[in-house]
Amino acid sequence: MELRQLQYFVKVARKQHVTQAAEEMHVAQSAVSRQIHLLEEELGVNLFVQKGRNLHLTSVGHLFLSRIEGILTDLERAVGEMHEFLDPEAGEIRIGFPHSLVINLLPAVVASFKKDHPNVKFRLRQGTYTSLIRDVSKGEIDLAFISPFPESHEHVTGELLLTEELYAIIPANHILADYTSIRLEQLKHENFVMFSEEYTLRSIVMEACLKAGFVPKIEFEGEETDTIRGLVAAGMGVSLLPAMALIEGGQMQPAKIRVTDPQVTRTIGLISRKGEKLPLVAEVFRRFLQEYFQ
What we know:
Blueprint: H1 3-15, H2 18-25, H3 29-43, E1 48-51, E2 54-57, H4 59-86, E3 92-97, H5 105-116, E4 121-126, H6 129-137, E5 143-146, E6 156-170, E7 181-183, E8 191-195, H7 200-211, E9 217-222, H8 225-233, E10 239-242, E11 255-261, E12 265-273, H9 280-292
Parallel strand pairs: 3-4, 3-5, 7-11, 8-9
Antiparallel strand pairs: 1-2, 5-12, 6-10, 6-11, 6-12
């Protein structure tokens, strides 16, 4: 059993297609097919079954994948740790983040860190709350910014970095646009532009609306802060967004108003895998973040 066979197997399992897997790995399709065939012969089982144009894992294939992914992750981490041991300042940090942090926070902290550590590389992965916790738990990334910060979790640990206020955003020609602050219940008859259900900002806004005594009428749903901000600016509804997502950009901008009753906030934290020591370069970055947010 060879390492490349296991790498080919994992890639085909994820893509469910030999040709796509081969293209992504920049190898011939025939080479991938042959190595998968040799692996199945050695194991004495069928790992895949053909369904139309796609390959689907068999039951034993799913079991094998769950074991092999962990082995390859550990191997990748071991190789990385050896490189960091030789030169920590030339290591790589694997970090995840939600979309709402990429506008301002993430570029700012990475740029600040790189001033003193110019040779450190970053491998960035965007995800939702659930996927970020999963990726950290599986060891696929070292650290993740996350919101809201989980106070306790079976597989991850970390620290709270900051608490951020959410503001109401409304069309610039709205009757409330010139207000400096409002009560959230003043928006109860408005149409809302919301994040999709898998995003935690949606649950934060929903909970705040229920606390204010109403269920918001959702007119549009989106997956990016720019989309939500743009729809509100175009008069399609109202919404709530965190302060760092309201940096001006473009001509069409909604009005931004503080919400006083109830005040709406979100927590942002940094998580890592529980019970596991971080790679040296990631630990240096973690300590930097603690000082940065103090």
